[in-house]
Amino acid sequence: MKLFRLIFLLLCTTSIYATPLAIKSDTKFQEILPHAQIFIDNTRKLKIEDILAHDIVFEENQKSLLGYGFSPDFDVWIRFTLTNQSHTALYKLIEYNNPITTYLKFYDPDKNYGVQEDGLFSINTNRKTINPTFEIQLKPNETKTYYLKASSYITTLIVQLNMWDTKSFYEKETTHQLSLALFFGAMIILGLYNLFIYFFTKDISYLFYVLYIFGVIIHHSIYRGIGIIYLLNQEWIVNSILYASVISSFPIFVLALFTKTFLHVKQYPRLDKILNFFIVFLPLSVLVFVYTDEYNKYRNIPGLLLLSFLLFITIYATFKKNRQAYFILGGWCAIFLAILFMQLSSTGVFDIYQYFPYVIETSFVFEAMIFSIALADRIKQLQADKEIANQKLITQQENETSRLSTLVKEKTSNLKVALDEKDLLLKELNHRVKNNIQLIVSLIRLQRDRLKNEKLREVLTTTQNRISTMKHLHELLYQQSQLSYLDTPAYFELLLDEIKESYRDENISIDIDVKAPLQIDQAIYCGIILNELITNSFKYAFTKNEGSIKISLSKDERGLYTLMLSDDGIGYDQEQIQNSLGLTLVKTLATSQLKGDIEILSQNGVNVKIQWPRKSR
To answer: Less packed terminus of the chain by CB within 10 Å, N or C?
Structure first.
């Protein structure tokens, strides 16, 4: 009870000396840090009880962002007081605008200054926001003082606090995550683009550049926090932070390999030796930073030195009129601009994000595009060199032109003879196939004429007509010179004449309207389909042995064929004829062979509509 009174007394005293920030019901956004007080705990031992129980001096702050850089030796305490000037309860979100701070502890007086933890090493598993957030509630006309402790012993310590109403915050968060998704999407596309070029060209420069792009993606996904929320679990987050020097150095390492191969640094022997030293030195220094904490604050220095030297090499190559250096010099400027702004922001000197929130992402995308253009120009230059070499070959081959011309004419003549023989053999083959099929049809017809059983006669007639569809196809192929397309109207006429002759029914009229030629493979399927459908019409549709059948074939501008057949017969019940062999054959050919769709309506006669694309799906 005494402890509670003491805390209550200290709370009242704190509220008196704190500068309250007035908020209203329509307050959507407010920067907290310029209205807060700061205390630096160099002992890193103070707890909230110590802060409340002792006369700790907090200093006033006017900055909206505090950057302390690499700060493993102290904690930062932030105190701020809020006053609800409205007559309704307010629910707000406190956003800590830095996703990579190691530890965050938020103390709410409503919970007797119980702690809410967040940060890299204690992320709330239900959190889907990039930055840590803490919910607060203020009753009407209520004043409260809140405390936040931030510490970061591996990553840079950047402090920025904002207050939002829930709707505005999530609108901002959605836009922010979408913008980052666009950035990562652009980088992934550029990486895959260059990866495919590497597979085609086998130029190792492209592979190094692809590794650089994906190294930047991994590093920036952690730096911006989106990878921490969506990609990594807590164990992976801890490991990625512990190996931060590896993650940050890897893109620089492969970028050095890219520069070495892309600019052909071997042509500058002294610079090449120094670059080789850096390429060996950087991984060794990373091992030191991974296994020791003493030099962690210097972990960015080797990478920055290597980047600076790469810039120097590029400038030197530019003066030496190295064509490729002209391109990547602009990319280097973009990289250094991004790194400069990141360092200025982390140290609190200048917060570029207040004016250009996505300047880092823009710089990286610009740099990646410039480097991709440089790589594309490399291909162009290689092609130009190839053309020069080809021209030399052409000059050397001019002396052989006469001999090769004679040889080509001889080969061409031989090929023409072979082609004529092939066409003759193909026509002869079609002729023989047609004759053999005709022989089979004749045998079936003789057998049918000798039968007295009408059902057997119908079976043989159907079989005869099915075989005749293929016979007529080979008959037309034998007669025409062009073999890719068939004379479709003539083919259909032959089929119909065969069927009409089989049933000897002159009172049934058939109207044909063919407006499109068919390829050979499609023609045979359509012939079988027409044979089955027209045979069914002759057999079952006309009870009085009179009627009409209409057939049309067309093709639209999209290349979609439409075959339609209709009769004015009695129709049929589709549910009772599901197992019909002919109908099954028609549906199978339409869907499986033509890769199309079939629609059958049996009201007021039978209407069949089949549509299929010019080519198989």
So the answer is: N
Angle at alpha carbon of residue 60, lines to 56 and 66, rounded to 5°: 105
Q: Token pair for residue 407?
A: 């040889």
- Quote the tokens at residue 56: 């700790």
Per-residue HEC secondary structure of 63-92 comes to: CCCEEEEECCCCEEEEEEEEEECCCCCEEE
Residue 219 identity (one-letter amino acid): H
Q: Given this model, what pLDDT does residue 418 score?
A: 67
Model confidence pLDDT, tens digit, residues 53-104: 877 889 998 888 888 877 778 899 999 999 998 889 999 999 998 888 888 9
Domain 2-172 fold: Immunoglobulin-like (2.60.40)
Q: What is the pLDDT of residues 176-218, one digit of tens each?
A: 889 888 888 888 888 888 888 888 888 888 899 889 889 888 8
Pairwise CA distance, residues 210 & 195, whole Å: 6
Q: Could you say which of 3.30.360, 1.10.3470, 1.10.287, 1.20.1070 is the CATH number of the domain covering 179-380?
A: 1.20.1070
> 537, 541, 540, 539: which is closest to 551 by C-alpha?
537
Pairing of strands 75-84, 20-23: parallel
pTM of the model: 0.56
pLDDT in tens, 298-317: 677 888 888 888 888 888 88
- Measured from the Cβ of residue 611, the count of other Cβ atoms closer than 10 Å reads 16
C-alpha distances out from residue 438 to 49, 445, 493, 532, Å: 106, 10, 17, 19
Q: Which of 273, 348, 280 is nearest to 98 (CA)?
A: 348
| DSSP class per residue in 106-133 | EEEGGGTTEEEEESGGG--TT--SSS-E
pLDDT digits (tens, 9 = 90+) for 18-56: 568 888 888 899 999 999 999 999 988 888 888 888 778
Q: Which CATH superfamily is domain 498-613 in?
A: Histidine kinase-like ATPase, C-terminal domain (3.30.565.10)
